[in-house]
Structure formats: C-alpha cells, structure tokens
C-alpha cells in the first residue's frame, strides 16, 4: 500500500521493507518539519534514506552545497522579458518552457505548489476524496480499506509563480513501529498554470492475511529538487477483512 500505505502511498502496496522509485513525466512552500511525523518510530531510518537519496552521504552533500556558488536568480517573468528583442532566443525560451499560463506567473523567484486533494479510487466502490489540508486530527483513522483490494491513488495540485523542478512524492508507512513501505515517485517538472494538474499512480493491491490486518501510521511529503517541502502530513488508516459498513 505504497501510496496509501504512505500518504495513500504510491497507490497502496504493502510489501515488507520495499522501496520504489518510478520515473514519470497546498499550502505555501515551507521547510519539512520532522516534528510532524506520526511517531518517533522509524524517524532516523527515514531521514537517512532521504539524506542518501542521491547516493551520496549527507556530509558530502553539505560540503558540495557550501562550495557551490549560484548566480543571481530571476523570476519567470524576468527570464521571459530578458532578450525579448532577440527572436532566436525568444523562440528557444518558448520551446524550452512550453505553454506557460502567464496569469499564474508572479514576481516571486520561488515556485508555489498547492496540493488540493488526495483520492483513493477502488473499482465498484465510491471514491475516497480528501481535501487538503485534512480537517481530521492526524491521530484519527483517516480511512479503512479491505484486504486484497485493488486501488489507484490520485492527487491534484496547482503550480504558480515559477517552474517547479523535480517534484517528488514520498510516502512512508509503519505498522507496530516497523517500517513496512517507503515509496519515492518522481512526478516531473511543471510550469505555472491556473488549472490544476492531476496525477494518477499505477494500480496496486492492499496486502491480505491475518498479519496484514490492523492499523498503520503513514507520512506523506511533496518536495522538489531543492528539497523544499510543499506538503508534509501524517495520518493513520486500517486494513480489515471487509469494507466498513456504510454509516
């Protein structure tokens, strides 16, 4: 239950200690806060996974960041205005940036990604749609799924101000203090536009059997190449033998 079993995991895949990486082309931006994790369980493992995500130890990455000196940053509007009298450069920028909704372009250099909703789609069942931010307390059970059921995870988000590069979805799930799923999905690079983007993950199947049933805690995050966190939230869910009865 990768996605579910992780922010509604990659889609829901619960194979013990599995880690996935797939290549596929809100709330205001903020730094990730580790204090929001569901429990202390597995925190260090999760941090280590992220620190070595690019295959380099954290200390080496920090050293590279210190040595790297970036040039001046420009907003997307400024980039498009520069060299506007040069026809060849203008065409090249249009080809590089693709279709940009200028009504969604602001003066800020920083992109803004606002996650609007997360949905769980199961055949022959009503869609489970959760508006972001979640209204329920993170300690309350967010949903219950039937064991062995197939589902898709889908979410919608809006990008504004500037291009967001390397947007990634990270989902981690624990059961009785043990990490059972850790999923990372590269969503891609997105231009600002007023219409929301929708992203649907591949179909997955919830685990089944006596040991798979019970309560799970999950943490989901959306970050970009600069490790800016646009959404970081935790919740709990259940996997049971049968679907819950309609209330």
UniProtKB/TrEMBL annotation:
Region listing for Disordered, in residue ranges: 1-72
InterPro entries in the record: Ig_E-set, Rho_GDI, RhoGDI_dom_sf
Compartments (UniProt record): Cytoplasm
UniProt GO MF annotations: Rho GDP-dissociation inhibitor activity
Major subcellular location class: cytoplasm
Family annotation (Gene3D superfamilies): Coagulation Factor XIII, subunit A, domain 1 (2.70.50.30)
Keywords: Cytoplasm
Family to which the UniProt record says this protein belongs: Belongs to the Rho GDI family.
Name recorded for this polypeptide: Rho GDP-dissociation inhibitor 1
Species assigned in the record: Vitis vinifera
Gene behind the chain: GDI1_1
């Amino acid at each position: 239950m990768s996605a579910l079993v992780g922010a509604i995991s990659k889609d829901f895949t619960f194979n013990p200690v599995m880690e996935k990486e797939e290549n596929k082309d809100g709330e205001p931006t903020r730094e990730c806060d580790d204090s929001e994790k569901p429990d202390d369980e597995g925190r260090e493992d999760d941090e280590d996974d992220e620190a070595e995500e690019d295959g380099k130890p954290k200390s080496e990455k920090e050293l590279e960041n210190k040595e790297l000196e970036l040039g001046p940053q420009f907003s997307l509007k400024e980039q498009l205005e520069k060299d506007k009298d040069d026809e060849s450069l203008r065409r090249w920028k249009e080809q590089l940036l693709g279709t940009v909704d200028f009504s969604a372009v602001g003066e800020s250099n920083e992109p803004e990604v606002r996650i609007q909703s997360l949905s769980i789609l199961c055949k022959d069942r009503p869609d489970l749609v959760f508006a972001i931010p979640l209204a329920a307390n993170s300690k309350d059970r967010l949903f219950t799924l039937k064991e062995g059921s197939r589902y898709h995870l889908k979410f919608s988000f809006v990008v504004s101000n500037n291009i967001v590069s390397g947007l990634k979805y990270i989902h981690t799930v624990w059961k009785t203090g043990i990490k059972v799923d850790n999923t990372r999905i590269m969503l891609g690079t997105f231009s600002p536009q007023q219409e929301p983007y929708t992203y649907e993950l591949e179909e997955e199947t919830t685990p089944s059997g006596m040991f798979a049933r019970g309560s799970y805690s999950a943490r989901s995050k959306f970050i970009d190449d600069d490790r800016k966190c646009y959404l970081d939230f935790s919740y709990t869910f259940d996997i049971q033998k049968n679907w819950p009865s309609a209330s």
